[in-house]
Amino acid sequence: MSVGKKTPIQPALHKVIMVGSGGVGKSALTLQFMYDEFVEDYEPTKADSYRKKVVLDGEEVQIDILDTAGQEDYAAIRDNYFRSGEGFLCVFSITDDESFQATQEFREQILRVKNDDHIPFLLVGNKADLADKRRVTFEDAKQRSDQWNVPYVETSAKTRANVDKAFFDLARKISSRKYRSEAQEESSPKKSSCCIIL
Amino acid sequence: MSLAPVVTGISPIEGVPGTKVTIRGENLGFCQDDLMGLIICGVDCLMSAEWKSNNKIVTRSGGGIGKGDIIVVTIQGGRGTSTVQFKGLQEAMGPLKESAVWANVGSVLEQVDTLYDLKCVFESDIQEYGRQSTEVLQKAIYKCKEEADKLFEDVLHRKDRADGTRNAINVLKRFRFLFYLPVNTERNIQKGDYDVVINDYARAKSLFGDTQIQLFKKFYSEVEKKIEDLRNILSEQLIKMPTTLEYQKKIIRNLYHLETPGDPAWQCLGAQHAYILHLLMESRDSHLSRELADHDLGANKGSTPGPPVSSSSRNTTPAAKYNKIMMSSVGEWQASAPVRVLLIEDLGDILSTNFPDMWKLSQAYFGGELLPSSAHVDHFKHPECKEMILELLGVFSGIIRGAIIPQTLNPHGAYIRKYHVWPEVPLDQITPWLPQVLRHIRSCYNTLLMLDLPKDAVDVIKTLLFDLRVHCLTSLFQQTVDHLCSLHSREDWRVEVDDEQGGYTHLPQICEGDIIECAQLVKETVLEGGRREPSLLDHPNISKDIGTLIHNVIVAFAQALRKLTLKDPDDPEVEDVPDRSNQENGTTVALPSVEVQFLITLSNCAYMRRVILPRLGESLVRAGYPKAEVIESIEKSSQTYNELQETLFDAYLEERIDPIIGMIERSMYLGQYDWGKVRHTPTEVRSYVKEILLNVSQVHAEVVAVWPGLIPSLIERMVEVIGEEMARLITCVSSFSQNGALQAHIDLAALNLALNNYMSPTAQASFQEAAEALPKLTSEAKRSKENVLRSFHNKMKFLLACFLDLNPVPNGEQMIASI
Ligand SMILES: Nc1nc2c(ncn2[C@@H]2O[C@H](COP(=O)(O)OP(=O)(O)O)[C@@H](O)[C@H]2O)c(=O)[nH]1
Ligand SMILES: [Mg+2]
């Protein structure tokens, strides 16, 4: 119903949802990505919303970020939020094995809610700057991401390492998936299978 | 570029009126006063807006309901836009949102409304169609309404209770973290999970740090108390040693995270410094008291002068002792090593294990690694830290110097009294261990080198090492000198004659072996050095010293040889020399006569000069000793041996010739012989001549057995002296009878004949002088002289043969004729 109202030149909107246990740095990553700032103090999030225009591979797009609460107190309302997401950054802290274990649950919840095995999804190991406190090896994380068939990236919201990469990679996945589904709608299944192979 | 504000972030995305909202975006103004308006969901919230930065405003949401934009208005940019939206929730609905009860109540209310509507329709119908039909209905409706009201009341009541409970649960849920925190903190502290405690504390602090609520305050202050306990525990652990660097760093970080006042890292450095210092001094003291106890014990036991250890150890070189040490088991090692060697081993361990951590900690400290990112490194502490490091290394080096090389401590410095506390011990007790000591210090040095220490810190150990090396060098040589000086005790007088060049005993080779062994050990352990150590040879002074040391060690043996023969009445040691060599084989071996000992030693001297010294020179140069110095010291020592050889030669000669000379006169005038009263024509050479020749031949035989090459010069000298004596005796004769003159001619001729081969011009002149003092012979007398000589030649063939170069002259005629 609102399609008519929207200006056609409005750039494509990709909806990203930050998931992961509390304290792993979802908000920090978001704020770093959005405003180049690092927040030292920890303030539990309920649900925050951000939207930013960026140029992705030469094309202007909007990235909409929903930063959610990791605390289980709010687990019940997560289903609602997840439903609106087009891509997920599933964050854990490499200094906290429990947060890594929790990613399994988040993954399952997302797959259940979205009912889509190929939903754009990145496994993100944050706080990579705290190398001396590392509790989750790169190999273990990589193994899990391979098993899920998703990329794994290690970030630091503090140093901004790989922060853009995480968001851009996800946005790219969302974008290419949208094109693909459009293409699928238009073209024959034969062609689309060709695409998939490519 | 547009300055229009744009809101791109909202936290949280929804809330009841009055919710604290953080708004982020761009162009949000440059100060509080730049804010002209702030509208959330259509409601102005400027009143509570708190401008934080150009990107951030914090406010409380107003009463706007439903989803809506967040619009910021600034002086610079005017009315802005928003890419995100806030959803205002209805206050009353807030707590009920998730409530199934509310849904029921809603439907009941709707039903009541519907019924009411229905009633109104009915009433209008009644007015149109009459009351009867509706009366029953109205009753029913009232009843319904009553029931509904009751139901509604019930539900409302239940809802209130549910609300109350839910609110309580919500509060508990949100704050149970805080309520449990004191207990959890306590438990985690006990478990040592300090990270968790710190994390929770940070969280609590940011949530409740400035709470006004009494209950929270109470819990929070309890947490604070626990945290204070933790600070104290950590501060204690921080300075408790020993520990690991990682642990220290962790504690320091924890303390910083807990916002502990003071400078924990610096405190830790100080504690570590004190700890290492304590370890070093404690090790020194415990070893020292052990040594002093041993020392007292030894002093009481060994009341006899000259401890037995010393004299038996005299028979082994330091190098041999060193080799024995190197081959001993750890247990033997521990038992036999001098206390101060064990001390050094211990000190080295202490430094190598503890110092690197302290240094690394200081590096981390000044690198800012340990400080919270907000704090600044206090670079004024740099000198103080360096002071600590230098002090540690200084004490380390001081203790070692005091124990091993006290002579290198500045006698006027403050350190001398602090470190020069060890009793004097004989050099030979420590020397064999010095290479090992060097090895320990060197390994320490290598550990330090890896740390990238400042140069003056490294230099403390570097100079220590250098001084130790020089000491080791001189000690090993000095000990070998001592050893070689006492080598005379091992002389067994067994001569090996390899050629005409002369014979030698085993002593020169022992000497050579010992010197080479020492040189080799010094070369391997001292001269070569290790990583980043200058070669001692490159040091001009040391190079010269090495020349002197080599010289000393070589001439030390000459000293031994001298002691062997030229007895010094002041030296008591020499007395027991013959005994020692006697006992060598268990059975008593007859010692050669003193004269033969002279000869043998003399020959050893020559052998040293001829064979050993050149070979030694080559070996030393091959081993890497500086050529010029080696050659010089070899030449100088060769002279020493030459002098000794000459002295011995003279001594031998004297020893042998004195009795001969004394004998000549006695024997000549035996039985009141008078040259002036000889009646009979002489028919034989007189027996004093035969005695002379016999004596000479004895010497000849003696020398041949040791060093045939010595004979010409030796016998020549003897003949000279004999000639001199003959001339003296003959010229002193007051008168000769005719037969007396003939007899004297015969005697002189016989001596000439026998000793012809060894006749020097001097000797010839003497004999000439004697012959000229005699009256001339008649030709008849000459004939009888020749007869006598012929028969002398025949009789004495074998004796004479030895004077004629071991070749018995086949034809005596010619020789006799020539005389
Ligand atoms: N050192 C470091 N700290 C981080 C990083 N990301 C987040 N943090 C800190 O971790 C705490 C929790 O971060 P936050 O973003 O609120 O976590 P969230 O609950 O996942 O949103 C905060 O104190 C952050 O400062 C990071 O990459 N490195
Ligand atoms: Mg958060």
From TrEMBL, chain A:
Location in or out of the cell: Cell membrane
Start-end of Basic and acidic residues biased regions: 179-189
Domain of life: Eukaryota
PANTHER family documented for this protein: RAS, DI-RAS, AND RHEB FAMILY MEMBERS OF SMALL GTPASE SUPERFAMILY (PTHR24070)
This protein's name: small monomeric GTPase
UniProt GO BP: signal transduction
InterPro entries on file: P-loop_NTPase, Small_GTP-bd, Small_GTPase, Small_GTPase_Ras-type
Family listed: Belongs to the small GTPase superfamily. Ras family.
Membrane topology: Lipid-anchor
Keyword Membrane on entry: yes
SMART domains assigned to the protein according to its UniProt record, in alphabetical order: RAB, RAN, RAS, RHO
NCBIfam families named in the record: small_GTP
Chain positions covered by the region annotation Disordered: 179-198
Enzyme class, UniProt record, top EC level: hydrolase
Main localization (coarse): membrane
Keywords of the record: Cell membrane, GTP-binding, Hydrolase, Lipoprotein, Membrane, Methylation, Nucleotide-binding, Prenylation
A GO cellular component annotation in the UniProt record: plasma membrane
Pfam families (alphabetical): Ras
Transmembrane annotation, as ranges: none
Gene Ontology molecular-function annotations: G protein activity; GTP binding
EC id: 3.6.5.2
Automatic annotation (TrEMBL), chain B:
Pfam families per record: Sec5, TIG
InterPro entries: EXOC2/Sec5, EXOC2/Sec5_N_dom, Ig-like_fold, Ig_E-set, IPT_dom
Cellular component, GO annotation: exocyst
Entries under SUPFAM superfamilies matching the protein: E set domains (SSF81296)
Keywords associated with the record: Exocytosis, Protein transport, Transport
Entry keyword Cell division: no
Domain Exocyst complex component EXOC2/Sec5 N-terminal: 99-803
Highest taxon in the source lineage: Eukaryota
GO biological process: exocytosis; Golgi to plasma membrane transport; protein transport
Family annotation (Gene3D superfamilies): Immunoglobulins
Region Disordered: start-end pairs: 296-316
Domain IPT/TIG, chain residue ranges per copy: 5-86
Record's subunit section: Component of the exocyst complex.
Role of this protein: Component of the exocyst complex involved in the docking of exocytic vesicles with fusion sites on the plasma membrane.
The family this protein is said to belong to: Belongs to the SEC5 family.
The protein, known as: Exocyst complex component 2
Origin species: Armadillidium nasatum
Gene that encodes the chain: Exoc2
